[in-house]
Amino acid sequence: MDEIEEYQIKESQLNHFLGKITEKKVEKIFLEEGHKICKCVKQGRKKNNWFVYLNIEKIEKVIEDYKGEKERLLKIMKENIKGLPDFLVFKDNKLFFLEVKSRSKPIDFSRFSPFSENQLKVFPILEEEGFKVKWFHVKLDIHTNEKPPSKLNSP
Length: 155
What we know:
The protein contains four helices and six strands. It is of the alpha+beta class.
């Protein structure tokens, strides 16, 4: 059999794909538990330039029943777009931000932070403004054939 073409995927690309899959799984878990949830930021591309923008239509649907200051929330999100957590989550008039991290090894905070420099700046701003920030660690088990748990525990 002839080899048609060899294609190489960089580890960073693979990690990106794993992150997206993990985010979808976490989103499904929260939806099944009755939460409203959406990605805070979307990415776009014009020619060769990537940019990020607020996922405003979905955010407005998530916060439609929120009794807090919606305009203030949107203003804070717009001002801090490059460090926002992955998701905005709402249930029972409780609103919080959720960052999802997936790794095959435990996170050792004494050695490094899994959060970006922008996130380390923005997370405290969100909390100072009264918005809780939670993070959800999904340990990837890519080395065994064990069946994964059917449901992950939400924070």
